Amino acid sequence: MLDNEEYSHGRRRSVDVGGLALALENQGLGHGWGGWEEDEQGETRYAELLSDMYNHTQTTVSHHVHDISPIVIPPHTRAHLINSLDSWHFEPQNLPEEEVLFCAQILFESLFRIERMREDIGVSLDDISVFLKHLRPLYCGHNSYHNFQHAVDVLQASQAFLCAAGVVPPVSILLDSADCTWRPNKRGKEGHLAFDLNNTCLFALYIAAIGHDVGHPGLTNMFMKNAKAPLSDVYDNKSALEQMHCALLIQAMRHHGLGKLLDRPDSGFRKMLAGIVLATDMSVHYQFIRDFQSLVDGREYSLERRRLLLCQAIIKCADISNPSRPPGVSHYWANALMAEWTYQATLEKRWSLPPSVTPSECPLDQVRGQIFFIGSYAKPLMDLVAQAVPEMEVFACQCTTNLAMWVARKEVLSSASAEDSPYPPVVIPCLRPPEDFLTSFPLTLPAFVLTADEPVASGEWHSAYPPSDSSSSSDFGSDVHVEHPVVFPSLSPPASPVPSVSSSYALATRSSSSSLASNTSDATQAMRAAYSASVRKKKSFHHRYSWNVTIKSGTSTPPPLLATIPKAALLLTESTSTSGTTVTSVTAMVSSDGNNGGLKVP
User: Fold this and answer.
1) Dihedrals phi, psi of 519, to nearest 5 degrees
2) Helices 13-26 and 522-532 meet at what angle, rounded to 10?
3) Half-sphere exposure of 323 (CA within 13 A, CB side)
4) Partner of 146 at 20 to 30 A CA spacing, among 115, 317, 408, 585?
5) Are 196 and 162 in contact (CB under 8 A)?
6) How far apart are CA 343 and CA 432, in angstroms?
7) Chain centroid to CA 210: how far?
8) Can you list the alpha helix ranges (DSSP code H) found in 165-212?
9) Are 374 and 406 in contact (CB under 8 A)?
């Protein structure tokens, strides 16, 4: 009987890693990559990372497939959700969990009312329904901000922007006959940039919106870079989280009949999808602003490039649309993000990492943060996109109104003493214990966390705390205060180099140092040599902390050919046995009036 750990796909992983390393060597890849200068080690280390990324991606997606029946929405629930989705006051955080999923389904149903959408896309609403059910648990329910509610919020905002532009119908079209379709009314709008988008672009944008943060650990790219998390090494610190989102999203699509879109020759769907998701990385924000400004200024771009830039503009506006929502909605999301930053700041302090976020400690700090973000990012973006899509001016105006509100609030707080402040102190509810981070996608965490002595020796980390639900996640007051600091009793870095951890990421002792050092012990070098020779000497910790996954022996999925594995969907690791023996393992790899100017077609 095959060992499920050693034979992840019916053969030794070491054979696959060795072969991948040789392939990379033949292509001259891996030398100097990730800071590794040794010619004899570059390809092997790169191959290990790619192997682990691929295996964890496959395992994560495959083991969340449970109910494959389409979503069924009760008629009375459908009616009130349609009304909510056509309102800019949409608040998914206040809905029951199943209704948040219903909202995603309804938005795709309204998209499919567009003429020829079904024929152009070639997938059914049932396929999309099952895909959405699969995608939801791939989001981390413990996150206060980057969760499935946020994904649906971004999808609804994208739909609202497109609806205002007359490119997609209002959600209320679903209240009409099921045979009624819709097409945009372009009369008087010839030459408008929004009408460059075809059905494939619109569908790619919807899929990107609902999946743009899938698998998010509640930590930032900068945190992972400072902690030397394996995922950052996989992508050389370039949009690591966004690349992971693409990987998980693509694999989930392939599980439910949507893979045909990715493989269509000359369709450009996969490139469009990846380009949209990667644009949500704020580190590339200013480059995008320059590119879109040149488009607005009249620079000649190809049709494909114009379409991509507009889709990127829509999802970027939707991703940071909270400052343009009504004040109460805007306040909720500001507090939710601040809670997530507070958890990250606590981890950084505990693990002696350089601080990369600055959570608010008082109402005035929060106000200043909102003024800076809206003034530097949200408002300039909205104003710029409104130049290309004039119908988005109404959202830019709401953003301006909210900015004025925050400025007025700052003046009140600046003139009042702490005792006389009309606003309560900032409160960050302690909803997330540190153990919850161990359910994140493994490569997003520092190696010393993944390889520490685990209290539960099983294929899944069982937290004693249930995931936060919509009721708990909406308990943020307008401002709040932490009474008890978060404590991390068992998640400290090792006191000395640990040869039994992944040799690429084993950490040396750190007291006051702000950076993480690699383990360069003799054991590490022996492990490298073992990988290079493709010799397996110990059990891999592959699957040990599989992300929210329960491993079933005997289940395996044949991997696709290496040439078909997207770079964004690959990854790797190293390990050791409990006896201390070195091991090798490797695997191959807003609503508008009426029908929004559109034309209903009976």
Assistant:
1) -80, 125
2) 80
3) 28
4) 408
5) no
6) 8
7) 10
8) 199-211
9) yes
Instruction: Please choose, from the candidates 285, 275, 277, 276, the residue with its C-alpha nearest in 3D space to the C-alpha of residue 377.
Output: 285
Whether residue 429 contacts residue 214, with contact meaning beta carbons closer than 8 Å, is answered with no
C-beta of residue 462 within 8 angstroms of C-beta of residue 469: no
Alpha helices in 355-432 (DSSP H): 363-373, 379-388, 393-415
DSSP 599: E
Give the type of residue at 441: F
Closest CA to 449 of 215, 245, 230: 230
What is the amino acid identity at position 364? L
Number of neighbouring beta carbons within 10 Å of residue 555? 9
Identify the burial level of 266 via C-beta atoms within 10 angstroms of its C-beta, where 0-12 means exposed, 13-18 middle and 19 or more buried.
exposed
- Which residue in the block uniquely carries the two structure tokens 């650990």? 217
Which amino acid is located at 472 in the chain?
S
The residues facing 11 across adjacent strands are none
Q: Burial letters for 567-591: b for 16+ Cβ neighbours within 10 Å, e otherwise?
A: ebbbbbbbbbeeeeebbbbbbbbbb
Separation of alpha carbons 239 and 281, rounded Å: 6
Is residue 134 classed as helix, strand or coil in its secondary structure? helix
- 51: Cα separation from own chain's centroid: 21
CB 449 within 8 A of CB 312: no
Q: How far is 331 from 402, CA to CA, in rounded Å?
A: 10
Is residue 595 within 8 Å of residue 183, measured between CB atoms?
Answer: no
Half-sphere exposure at residue 534, Cβ-oriented, CA atoms within 13 angstroms:
16
According to the model, what pLDDT value does residue 308 have?
Answer: 97
Do 379 and 399 touch, CB atoms closer than 8 A? yes
Pair 220, 357: CB distance under 8 Å = yes
- Least Cα distance to 435 among 456, 421, 415 occurs for 456
Run of H or E including 45: helix 39-62
Which two three-digit tokens encode residue 585? 């393992």
Cα–Cα distance for residue pair 42/413, rounded to 1 Å: 55
CA 366 to chain centre: 24
Look at strands 181-183 and 599-601 and give their pairing: antiparallel
Note whether 225 and 236 are within 8 A (CB): no
Residues comprising the chain, all counted: 602
At residue 50, the pLDDT reads 79
Q: What is the distance between the alpha carbons of residues 326 and 309, in angstroms, rounded to a whole number?
A: 27
In the prediction, which pLDDT does 397 show?
96
CA distance 573 to 568: 16
Closest CA to 23 of 53, 43, 52, 51: 43
Residues facing 599 on adjacent strands: 183
First-residue to last-residue Cα distance in the chain = 60
3-state helix, strand, coil in the chain (%, to 5): 50, 0, 45
Whole-angstrom distance, CA of residue 370 vs CA of residue 178: 44
Per-10-residue mean pLDDT of the chain, 602 residues long, equals 38 44 48 40 69 83 74 94 97 96 98 96 94 93 94 98 97 90 88 94 98 96 93 91 95 90 88 97 97 96 97 98 94 92 89 88 88 96 97 96 94 74 55 73 83 40 34 37 38 36 28 34 40 36 33 38 32 40 37 53 53
